[in-house]
Every structure is written in structure tokens, then in C-alpha cells.
């Protein structure tokens, strides 16, 4: 069994591209040491992340993430167990749409992520919550925007 945790947070206004690269490098190194896998998505000032591995290791990693000053408004969206990993080969996958993405590319990414979210290979609740939130983040309305 693998433990999975999905959370969403808001980046601080001071966050830079260098900060995100630093987050990824450290995550990939630290996660590999503890056999934690996952995916981090950043768009429009928000992060959505799924972490998976041994329960104690994932909770310990999340405790470090939670006190990181580069984001706030941290909400655990779901946590639970799964028979298999969602991101088996990725110590930390990462997706960020370019600020000025071409509509065709952006729509294709959104379509692909929606298909992944709904794929039958993702039956557990935590991964469905992750993909639902990724889709919401990439949707034109995003998180917390008025219609």
C-alpha cells in the first residue's frame, strides 16, 4: 500500500521562477532519498501537488512543505491509501503552462489532463481529487475567481 496526499496552496507574491526551480531540485533529491513520488502543478499563482510513498515519509515531507514561506493558504484536499503509485517513475513531475501559451497548446494540455483525471486507471479518491483540482486550476476561471 502507498499513502497519497493531495494539497493546494497559494504562492506568495514574491515567488520567482528561481524559487520554483529550487523547489523542484530539492524535491527531486529529497523525494528520491525517501522513495516519494508525485506531481507538482503551478499556474496562476497556485500549486496543486500529489505526494505518494510510505505514510510516515509523505507526512514528514508535507510537514516541511507546510512551513515553506514561498506559499500560504495550504489546504489538504485528500489523503488515503492506494495499491499503486500514480507517478511511479517521477520523484517530482512538474507542469506550468507558459504565461502566454498559445490557445491550441493550452487547450490540448487541458484536454489531456482532463482525460487523465477521468481515466479508469485512476480509481482511487485521492488521485481523482488531484486531477479534478489540476483541471480546475487550468480552467479559465481557476481557483477563487469570480465568474
Model description:
The protein has 147 residues and is α+β, with helices and mostly antiparallel strands. It has one domain: Alpha-Beta Plaits. The protein is built from 4 helices and 5 strands; from the N terminus they run E-H-E-E-H-E-E-H-H. A 5-stranded mixed beta sheet has the order 4-1-3-2-5, with helices on both faces. Helix 3 (103-118) runs antiparallel to helix 4. The radius of gyration is 15 Å and the shape is globular. The termini are far apart. The model has no long low-confidence stretch (mean pLDDT 79).
Compact summary:
The chain contains four helices and five strands; from the N terminus they run βαββαββαα.
* CATH A-level architecture: 2-Layer Sandwich
Q: What form results from the Cα inertia axes?
A: globular
The helix tally amounts to: 4
Question: Main β-sheet, in a few words?
Answer: 5 strands, mixed
**What is the CA-based Rg, rounded?**
15 Å
Kindly report how far apart the N and C termini lie: 41 Å
Write down the oligomeric state.
single chain
How are the strands ordered across the major sheet?
A: 4-1-3-2-5
User: How many beta strands in the DSSP annotation?
Assistant: 5
Give the integer mean of the pLDDT values. 79
Report the uncertain regions: none
| CATH fold label | Alpha-Beta Plaits
Question: Helix share of residues?
Answer: 40-55%
Name a few traits of the molecule.
5-stranded mixed sheet, alpha+beta, Alpha-Beta Plaits, single chain
Amino acid at each position: 500500500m502507498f499513502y497519497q496526499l493531495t494539497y493546494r496552496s497559494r504562492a506568495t507574491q514574491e515567488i520567482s521562477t528561481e524559487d520554483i526551480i529550487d523547489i523542484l531540485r530539492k524535491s527531486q533529491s529529497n523525494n528520491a532519498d525517501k522513495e516519494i513520488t508525485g506531481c507538482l502543478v503551478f499556474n496562476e499563482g497556485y500549486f496543486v501537488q500529489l505526494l505518494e510513498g510510505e505514510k510516515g515519509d509523505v507526512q514528514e515531507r508535507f510537514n516541511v512543505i507546510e512551513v515553506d514561506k514561498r506559499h500560504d493558504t495550504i489546504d489538504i484536499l485528500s489523503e488515503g491509501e492506494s495499491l499503486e503509485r500514480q507517478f511511479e517513475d517521477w520523484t517530482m513531475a512538474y507542469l506550468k503552462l507558459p504565461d502566454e501559451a498559445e490557445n491550441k497548446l493550452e487547450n490540448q494540455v487541458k484536454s489531456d489532463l482532463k482525460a487523465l483525471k477521468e481515466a479508469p486507471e485512476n480509481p482511487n479518491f485521492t488521485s481523482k481529487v488531484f486531477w479534478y483540482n489540476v483541471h480546475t486550476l487550468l480552467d479559465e476561471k481557476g481557483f477563487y475567481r469570480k465568474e
